[in-house]
UniProtKB/TrEMBL annotation:
Keyword presence, Signal: yes
Signal sequence segment: 1-24
Keywords assigned by UniProt, alphabetized: Glycoprotein, Signal
Claim: Signal is one of the keywords in the record: yes
Protein name: Uncharacterized protein
GO function term, MF aspect, one: copper ion binding
Sequence ranges assigned to domain Plastocyanin-like in this UniProt record: 40-149, 164-289, 413-458
Similarity remark: Belongs to the multicopper oxidase family.
Annotated coiled-coil segments of the chain: none
Length: 458
């Protein structure tokens, strides 16, 4: 990754950035967001939810390839705030990425304007607050990056695009969940599943018209639960995932892990016989079952949804999930952000510079407190964002940086000396890295790979 180019203060950046990153033909999108707490009861239990402009989920960030996006974020929360743009390739703007390693948090009562270009991107993504487990309180929303004029989408224009943000939900305040983790305890099981901020007691109702085709942009915005998504009596035609168009393929249900986004086309029924239909979202790989419901209504629907629940994979059928992931292929013949087909860059011919094997783990310390680790190191945040520290060559002063972060898992013995710290991997511009993830723990783990281009190869 490129060496960062950081002015002294995080506040100064946005204006110079606008001058340097705008390319001819790119548009501007401007948003003004106030982030605050509001009492909502998605599962029937009142909770302080993080809302943006009084909305939960937050407003749609709707833009087009190469647009420059500015988002003025006003923090009316009682705690510091950063918003991260999941799936957006920050490239030269990587310090706008809204994670603690790159950005100074926006302090309570302050505002800061993110500014980045959606260069060479299309697709469905979402944003969320990255600090202090605030994601468990809400504050998330959908991102759409539309095709530029002149580059056709590789399917007929749908009648409507619909964002579906699905995820597990806790009735407990995110502050109390955070406290559990800080005390070295595990998170409890979630209380339910939300679809667009609504639980089963007042499910989200979508009104569809017969014969039309809808594009659903579905993201798992939850904390920890993999989900299976299906719609009674309607097939899902997968067309895009996280910024790449896929070979079109029908699925009766889709596994969506935390952080993943998919676009599917759904053709509304010609004849409903007065029925309406359930959308089901159920937990995967859990001993308990959480179920989220939505409803599809048609103008002539007279009855609430009924009839057989569409089958779901068995809760611990890992093979289903892995085979489904393997069945998803890039469509190499169509353009996306550019005219030339997605397949014209031959990723298969890349020379890998270095392989990193990243293994998550946990250590149980004194008082039975747990800490999570990567290759034996448990991460500590330095007070200065790492990118600033790098720019000003302050790593030595930070003391807690682990510059010799190991490329492979280490035994407890070898890691004894340096068990906690801010892990840093030095990489070179234009190199390609092969990242292998290993999870020896008995539950599903999700990695947030931030700010750059990542391609799944196996
Ligand atoms: C999103 O932006 C596109 C391109 O400017 C526009 O055509 C579309 O109507 C917008 N959608 C919404 C929901 O604002
Ligand atoms: C804060 O918001 C004001 C508008 O109310 C804007 O003029 C200013 O540039 C914003 N400050 C930052 C640092 O983004
Ligand atoms: C539904 O209607 C569309 C357009 O009128 C037609 O092309 C399609 O074949 C119909 N589907 C069925 C199952 O009748
Ligand atoms: C990989 O290395 C080979 C041999 O050095 C070279 O011919 C090839 O162009 C390289 N591939 C890429 C994509 O750089």
């Amino acid at each position: 990754m490129e060496s960062p180019f950081l002015p002294l203060s995080c506040i100064l950046i946005s204006s110079c950035l606008l001058l340097t990153t705008v390319h001819a033909g790119s548009g501007y999108v401007y948003y003004d967001w106030t982030v605050s707490l509001s009492i909502r009861s998605p599962l029937g239990v009142p909770k302080q939810v993080i809302v943006i402009n009084d909305m939960f989920p937050g407003p749609l960030l709707n833009a087009t390839t190469n647009d420059v996006v500015s988002v003025n974020v006003r923090n009316h929360l009682p705690e510091p705030l950063l918003i991260t743009w999941n799936g957006v390739q920050m490239r030269r703007n990587s310090w706008q990425d809204g994670v603690r390693g790159t950005n100074c948090p926006i302090q309570p009562g302050q505002n800061w304007t993110y500014s980045f270009q959606l260069k060479d991107q299309i697709g469905s993504f979402f944003y969320f607050p990255s600090l202090l487990l605030q994601k468990a309180g809400g504050g998330y929303g959908a991102i759409r990056v539309n095709n530029r004029k002149g580059i056709p989408i590789p399917f007929p224009q749908p009648a409507e695009d619909i964002d579906l943000l699905v995820g597990d939900w806790y009735n407990v305040h995110h502050r109390d969940l955070r406290q559990m983790l800080d005390q070295g305890r595990h998170l409890p099981r979630p209380d339910g599943i939300l679809i667009n901020g609504h639980g089963n007691f007042g499910p989200t109702v979508f009104l569809w018209r017969s014969g039309l085709t809808y594009r659903l942009r579905i993201s798992n915005v939850g904390i920890r639960t993999s989900l299976n998504f299906r719609i009674q009596d309607h097939a899902l035609l997968l067309v895009e995932t996280e910024g790449s168009y896929t070979v079109k393929k029908y699925y009766s249900s889709l596994d969506i892990h935390v952080g993943q986004s998919y676009s599917v086309l759904v053709r509304a029924k010609n004849l409903t016989h007065g029925h309406s239909f359930y959308i089901f979202v159920s937990s995967r790989f859990t001993k308990y079952e959480l179920l989220g419901l939505g409803v599809v209504h048609y103008p002539d629907s007279r009855m609430p949804p009924s009839g057989p629940i569409p089958t779901r994979p068995a809760p611990f059928d890992f093979g289903f999930s892995i085979n489904q992931a393997r069945s998803i292929k890039w469509d190499l013949d169509v353009g996306a952000a550019r005219m030339n087909p997605q397949g014209s860059y031959h990723y298969g011919a890349i020379n890998v510079s270095r392989t990193l094997i990243l293994e998550n783990g946990l250590v149980v310390g004194s008082n039975n407190r747990i800490r999570y680790t990567v290759n034996g190191v448990s991460f500590l945040h330095p007070d200065t964002p790492l990118k600033l520290a790098d720019r000003f060559e302050m790593f030595d002063e930070l003391k807690i940086v682990v510059p010799s972060f190991p490329d492979a898992p280490q035994t407890a013995e070898t890691m004894k000396l340096q068990r906690m710290g801010a892990s840093v991997v030095d990489v070179k511009w234009r190199d390609f890295y092969h990242l292998v993830f290993q999870n020896p723990l008995p539950n599903v783990q999700t990695w947030h790979l931030d700010g750059y281009n990542f391609f799944v190869v196996g």
